[in-house]
Design a protein that fits this description.
The termini are far apart. The protein is built from eleven helices and ten strands. A hairpin with a 5-residue loop joins strand 3 and strand 4. The chain is an alpha+beta fold. Helix 5 crosses helix 6 and helix 6 packs antiparallel against helix 7.
Length: about 350
Amino acid sequence: MQHINVKNDAGLLALATRLVIGWTYFSAFWRRTILADKLDPEQAGYIGEKFNHFLPHALGIKPVIQYLVENPDTLWVAMVAFTIIEGIVGLFIIFGLFTRLMSVGVFGLAMGILLGSGWIGTTCLDEWQIGVLGIATGFVLFLTGSGMYSLDRYLMKNNYAITKKKIFPWIGSGTLPIKDRIFPKVVLVGSLLILGMTLMTNQVFHGGLWGTLHNKSVKPKLEITQGEISKNKLSFDVFRTEGVDVYGSWVIDITLYDQQNNPVLSYGQDALATLPKESISNYYIAKIKPGKHSLIIPLGAKATLHLKNKSLNDLAAGKYTLKITDISGAFWEHTIEK
């Protein structure tokens, strides 16, 4: 085995990065399986609901997320597979085994986090930072491999058969088989592409380069669509697209007004807190449901609400305004024509 000057051993110099990024991904597996059961769809904190939070503003992979949250069984399989992959990638990175192959896993997992949830973060753009830093560190670990204090080095030092394969430098560690005159260009192009991805997503998600800086995780926002009044029933879709992911929007009032701004139908806190299950048809795994004092709408949740009331039977034809009010005082309106 060729002698390596430890001061120039890039894999050794990246040891702290390797250990920390490895634990970052392995800890996801650890939290969901050992410290708490976050893979049980019936338990509070189910990881599938967190995944549902990504839906409103995911970039590029929104159709995939929507398909999964509309199909709970497939979602559960995906969450279990995702957790196992994170555990394997993280553990192998920590021990420096097949480092370059695992670094591709880090890159891919981080890309998924960035595109899916890079818009979420109430204070420090949390998910965006995790995503872009994961992509950058995955690329660095691919370039460096693992040096001293790694199982890759142990395999190479003891001349295991796999280390003699041409593919090993690509999936393990050691000198990458890239010509010296090309290697700097590979580093430069890769780095610039990652920087470009960073700047692009920073702008798309947060307006971080120009225009108005914004954060979609601070205030709740509801979208109301498909409003209809038919006989004695008011139906409409409500979709929560913004706000803090760990808290719901607490709806304390739903009122329908006529053109003279007179209320013709009103549901206050008590009525919303006792709304029957058949009045709510949820689309996704994150569910709108009655709470103790209000109607709770989690981030990413969408449902059709069916509000039956005899007072709707005698409504004259015309335009009506549906108003939904959050406990914060924020409200959203939607025009319905009968």
